[in-house]
Amino acid sequence: MDAIKLLLRLSVIAMFFLADTTIAQISEPMLRFKSQELTLSEAIKQVSEQTDIAFSYVESLFPGDRKIKLDKEVYNLSEFLDLAFKPIGVSWTRRNNLIILSRKNKGQKKKITISGYLTDQESGESLIGAHVVDTDKSHGITTNSYGFYSLTTDSYPQKISYSFIGYQSHEKVLYSDGDTTINVVLSPQSDLLEEVVVSGRVPVVEKSQMSSLTLKSEEIKAVPMLMGEADILKTIQLLPGIQSGAEGTSGIYVRGGGPDQNLILLDGVPVYNASHLFGFFSVFNADAIHQVDVIKGGFPARYGGRLSSVIDIKMKEGNLNEFHGEGAIGNVATKFTIEGPIKKGKTSYMLSGRRTFMDLFIVPLARLSNSERITSYHFEDFNGKINHIFSDRDRIFLSTYLGRDKFFEDIDQTFGFQGLRETTKEEADMSWGNVTTALRWNHVYNPKLFGNVTATYSRYEFNLSTSVDTKIESSGKTNNIFRRNDYTSNVRDWALKLDFDYVPSGNHHIRFGGAAVHHLFKPGASRFQSHLATDTTFGSSKMATQEFYVYAEDEIRVSEKFGLNAGIHISGSSTENTFYSSVQPRFSTNFQITDFLSVKTSYAKMAQYVHLLVNSGVGLNTDLWIPVTDRVKPQQSDQIAAGIAAEVAKKFEITIEGYYKWMTDLIEYKDGAGFLDIDDEWEDKIEIGDGISYGLEFLLQKRLGKTTGWLGYTWSKNTRDFENLNFGKEFYYRYDRRHDVSLTLNHKLKPHIDLGLVWVYGSGFPVTLPTATYQRSVGHITGNLNRTNLIKDFPGRNATRIKDYHRLDLSISFSKQKRWGQRKWVVGLYNTYSRLNPTFVEFNPNFENRREFVQLSLFPIIPSLSYQFKF
């Protein structure tokens, strides 16, 4: 009986409950809101004010500032709840006067992908390497070389942070239930607090890539340089592991490699000769450059074709919003750059030109003074780029570089004696230069897949022409003697490249692609003309080779503390009757011990299908680019590296790295051979051998605050081993330098005054010099004391060291804001304490003065003055 009563009571309660629920479902309160657009917090508050309904939810379920738009004045409760919460993945349940909010499909969150471009608000240019972070999940990615990003996250509301060093950070709250495109514009701000700026970059301890550094155009311009000309390659020489060649030159030698082992890319196009003024300046105009990425080891699989370094230079894209210009007038060159929109927000251009004007002054002065010798030199270069945005999915770029150096010498001499009159006119004309062109199409196939198709052309050409025209008048008769020699060498490339970025999740960034390259080499040919013989041509014929590569790499976030970049690069080359191929595995790891300390390792195998025959230690333009052949194999290298990276006080970055590199199938001229030995093919003038390089590098860097700069130190050892050179014994490479130190500082003394300082030190390079000389004797008669009668005793190739090298450069700049823009005066001192550093040393048998060796030094203290402007 008691059991029956209990069941009746429960039935009655259930009936009342069901009845109440039914009534509640049928009875929908009508809601009238005070505004057409209001936040969720405001809407919930107005619902509670109009009814006796309460809401139950977790604070983190949705942001209170999320806004909803209302398209009518009156809603019933269900309509409002669906409108407000369904788009953000929140479900609702009503129990009497209580609305319970919860996450849909809890435990099975839908994944979506956010993608788009990050650009500069003022110029519209892409921001490369900007940081995009899902702050709720604490993971993020960086934008690629074209400012594109792809971030996979959960569909419920996420707070996404966009940041880049020197720009105001920006945050967006995402409410999408599917893949979406978000293009973000960041505003530059130079006076940000340091702790804000730090958030705009990827800390060095988090990067998987080691042995690399990025330099902005502004950093390059702030470094004091020879004759006040900002120089990309000279700035790179100040980094550890990268050494300069002869005094004042722009040649670079990375971790024991030669000048040909550096892959120098300008907007993705290889540049074969990177020097103006016989090597003293680089061909890259800093005003036309956006940024430079330098990689010394642990090469990502997307790069290949060289052994020692990648120098990836990206030109400015041009301002999409406003017209701007800048330029400078200095000791060396005058330059001018303009950029602006062709169609605002859609199409932009950048044009930049530079030229020396020494020839316009030297030649007229020489002619006015009736000088017998007239020497003229100038260089000029031009950078241009057009950028067009078709849509959020398609962009196209066309960029080009044209550069040329021209040297001319004219000597007129007249000699007369006892009725004999001889007039001689000698002319030497030398020119060299590059042409590069790239046509690039970016396409977003879907939010996770970004593609890049590039067609490129590159040409380097060197020409040397000499002539001697002699007129002899004697006894009323005239004889003409004429000789002319024309020498030319060039290399041309046509290439098609495909590159893809695929981001399947927040833990993987996959890159893959390939390229095909057609090389056409003309290693060197000479044409002789004279009054006695017909034209004769000597030298190597044209040679065509084909090169290809494919690659795949994945940047993997294995765990919160461990990152990995693993990939493979497969390349090949077809030449004459031989096909060479190479499989090159690559990896870089990063284990983050703490938030401020990580350990990194890397391995990279590289192959190179072109060689450079270096004619002299100075690196003149007579150096010849040559291909692999049936007899000359590709250069190959294996490099391992390990190191630590640390961040101190969020201001200083410290990296310490050790490396070891093996190189095979290197080439050198035979002893005594040179580029003008026209009787032999170049393959008969070379020796083939191996090389080893290892060292330790230290870099302390500060990029924030009034004082910025870096301190670098390198200890290294670089050797070569050729069977037929140095009697088969191992010898030091010509640019083996045991110790190398560089200090670079920039200090903002006042808002309009900046100070710059560079101090470098390097132990002496090895040279080949005799340690003893003997006087030649013929029978019992001693020969005269001159060069031809001396026997020199050489202890070995590169067995002697020249003096250590060091110098101090200073600069101060004064800027002022004008109505039309900004002007800046830059005063500099190169080699401030006038150290006479050796460029090279030669033997001089002057026994009377006991000066057996003579040192040539090029640059004492050199002041510079430059006027720069921007508008």
Identify the notable features of this structure and list them briefly.
transmembrane; Immunoglobulin-like; 871 residues; elongated; mainly beta; five-stranded mixed β-sheet; transmembrane beta strand; signal; 3 domains; transport
Uncertain regions spanning at least 5 consecutive residues:
10-26, 191-201, 780-785
Cα-atom Rg, whole angstroms?
Answer: 35 Å
Q: What is the C-level CATH assignment of the largest domain?
A: Mainly Beta
Report strand %. Answer: over 45%
Largest sheet: 22 strands, antiparallel, barrel
What is the overall shape?
A: elongated
Task: State the helicity in percent bands.
Answer: under 10%
Please name the CATH topology of the largest domain: Maltoporin, Chain A
How many separate domains?
A: 3
Determine the number of helices (DSSP H or I, runs of at least 4 residues): 7
- What class do helices, strands and sheet pairing give? mainly beta
Walk me through this protein's architecture.
It is a multi-pass membrane protein. The protein has 871 residues and is mainly β. The chain folds into three domains: 19-103, Phage tail protein beta-alpha-beta fold (3-Layer(bab) Sandwich); 111-202, Immunoglobulin-like; 213-765 and 802-870, TonB-dependent receptor, beta-barrel domain (Maltoporin, Chain A), CATH 2.40.170.20. It has a 22-stranded antiparallel β-barrel. Strand 21 (275-276) and strand 22 form a beta hairpin.
Write the layout of secondary structure elements.
Elements: H1 2-26, E1 30-32, E2 37-39, H2 40-50, E3 54-56, E4 67-69, E5 74-76, H3 77-85, E6 90-95, E7 98-103, E8 111-120, E9 131-134, E10 139-142, E11 148-154, E12 158-163, E13 170-174, E14 180-181, E15 184-186, H4 194-198, E16 212-216, H5 217-221, H6 232-236, E17 242-244, E18 252-254, E19 262-266, E20 269-270, E21 275-276, E22 281-282, E23 289-295, E24 309-315, E25 324-329, E26 334-343, E27 347-355, H7 358-368, E28 373-389, E29 394-417, E30 420-446, E31 449-474, E32 477-505, E33 508-530, E34 536-539, E35 543-557, E36 562-575, E37 578-594, E38 597-608, E39 610-613, E40 624-627, E41 635-648, E42 652-669, E43 686-702, E44 707-722, E45 731-732, E46 739-750, E47 753-762, E48 766-767, E49 772-775, E50 777-778, E51 781-782, E52 790-793, E53 800-801, E54 805-818, E55 821-830, E56 840-846, E57 851-856, E58 862-870
Parallel strand pairs: 3-7, 8-14, 8-15, 19-24
Antiparallel strand pairs: 1-5, 2-4, 6-7, 8-11, 9-10, 9-12, 12-13, 16-23, 17-18, 19-20, 21-22, 23-24, 25-26, 25-58, 26-27, 27-28, 28-29, 29-30, 30-31, 31-32, 32-33, 33-34, 33-35, 35-36, 36-37, 37-38, 38-41, 39-40, 41-42, 42-43, 43-44, 44-45, 44-46, 46-47, 47-54, 48-53, 49-52, 50-51, 54-55, 55-58, ...
Domain TonB-dependent receptor plug: 228-306
Subcellular location: Cell outer membrane
Keywords: Cell outer membrane, Membrane, Receptor, Signal, Transmembrane, Transmembrane beta strand, Transport
